Amino acid sequence: MDHAENTSDDTRRPAARDEHGRLEHRAEHHKPDFTDPVVAVNTAPVVAIGLIGGYGVARATGNRPLGGAVLAAAGIYAGRTWLARRGPVVAAGLGATYVLGFGLSHPLAKKIGAWPSVLAVTAVSAAAAHYLSDTQLSLR
After folding, report:
1. Contacts for 23-30 with beta carbons within 8 Å, 24 or more apart?
2. pTM over 0.85
3. Residues 6+ apart with CB under 8 A from 43
4. Residues 12-50: pLDDT tens digits?
């Protein structure tokens, strides 16, 4: 049998083309369903809870791993929304912003103080989450 033939058991769909004959990008997995509770989450407040809450819990209890658990739980919760809403590239970028914010807050705290440092990195991370992910909610 010739491999170039299209047989009846071939389940592949032909590539979609636009009006100019160019291949269209199929991104069904990047079209979020805004009725899905995972997608409907505003992640900027979750990011703020993770960074501020994680630091606050660690400071109040003296238990750094407990603060880290708060940070991780909020990051995972926001991350699943970023992935569902915007795909892996944006989710990875926002996740990196979140983790780097946490990491950079430590040396920044030596210069400006602990709480100002946490608030500064939280503002940057939450703003990134808002503009790169949460504004998608208003586009529906």
Report:
1. 27/87, 29/87, 30/86, 30/87
2. no
3. 78, 81, 82, 94, 129, 130, 133, 134
4. 555 566 666 665 544 444 566 666 767 778 999 999 999
Contacts of 17 (CB under 8 A, 6+ apart): 23, 24
Give a yes or no: residue 72 inside a domain. yes
Q: How many helices (H) and strands (E) does the chain have?
A: 5, 0
Residue 29 lies in a domain: no
Residues 6 or more apart from 122 whose CB is under 8 A from it? 47, 48, 51, 52, 101
Question: Helix (H, G, I), strand (E, B), or coil: what is residue 23?
Answer: strand
**Any domain includes 128:** yes
Of 98, 107, 94, 102, the closest CA to residue 55 belongs to 102
* Among candidate residues 64, 100, 95, the one with its CA nearest the CA of residue 82: 95
47 lies in some domain: yes
**Domain with 94 in it:** 34-139
Nearest C-alpha neighbor of 44 from the set 110, 138, 117: 138
